[in-house]
What does this fold into?
Amino acid sequence: MSNPTRVLVLNSGSSSVKYQLLDMRDSSRLAAGLVERIGEQTSRLRHTCLGTGDTREHSGPIADHDAALKAVAGELSRDGLGLDSPELAAIGHRVVHGGLFFTEPTVIDDEVLTEIERLIPVAPLHNPANLTGIRTARALRPDLPQVAVFDTAFHTTMPESAARYAIDPRIADRHRIRRYGFHGTSHAYVSRRTARLLGKDPSEVNVIVLHLGNGASASAVEKGRCVDTSMGLTPLEGLVMGTRSGDLDPAVIFHLARVGGMSMEEIDTLLNKRSGLFGLCGDNDMREIRRRIDEGDEEAALAFDIYIHRLKKYIGAYYAVLGTVDAVAFTAGVGENAAPVRAAAVAGLEGLGLAVDPERNAVRGDGPRLISPESSRVAVAVVPTDEELEIATQTYALVGKHN
It folds into this structure.
């Protein structure tokens, strides 16, 4: 029998599991789905067999991740793609935080699980859910290689001057306080795909990647290696996001506690869930914000301006960090679909060689494309991200080496 070529990618959240099954012979998708509201009476599983286009939905209580993954396995089996298939080579897991210990994809064993668990204090919302998914999948297929692909790994190449905060290093090291960065699989994929769009090797280009979704981050990628990124110890630092504040004077927290009488939990909720675009104007959907702006809504317009101001500052900062820039790449939900955001982000930066062509920018498409004028010194691109493919590719490559 030929070598197995399929990889199942699992992204386990606190109450959800996203999954895709890919065949790595041609990177094609065989199935995809989402289990959401795990642990509630209103749980839902949506599964699509991409070979046939058949989509099935099931509603009803799914008690935990164990039940969720068993339900996923059942749906895959109905399509002849079950977890017991000899064609399944590995399961790749998205893990949000790998600290400094994990700098590349890693085959999971008990020691790896222990280290991921030790990182829970710096990723309390994400790593526990990732661990639950891993443990459940290992129980279902204990004989199958399982690989952890870390959101932070791509950013471990940052120099200490970019990764360190200016606090006592003994205290910082004791509590693992440093800038780790996130969305690493997306930044890795998009920076490489941008180089290919330019007809060059990643080692030949400098790229500023703008991952703009509900969560948002920027990175400076020098010759294929990340040298700076906007998120820090947690995903709260950096750009204005859907519900997160991004950069903030740390003294605001002390002020809210001392003068505002707010608890640490209330401040945490405010900055992570009730700030950003949502906190500014009550909406975190860029489409709705743009609709309100078109109708003359001043609150939405100010929120948009604050969002763009921060974004433009990071483009300029990373231009300075890199020295020379070959391309700026927009990706993720907002970056790929919101033409007004792209236009506003580079407006006025013509002196840096940045501009967008209005007609090219207005065109919607599924693939990578340039939206800058032919004469531009720096390419501006829209490059759809594909974190699942990146996880599957890294998983499959590692399993081949491991075997």
Remarks:
- Residues 298-322 form the longest helix (25 residues).
- The CA atoms of residues 199 and 225 lie 18 Å apart.
- The chain has a mean pLDDT of 93.
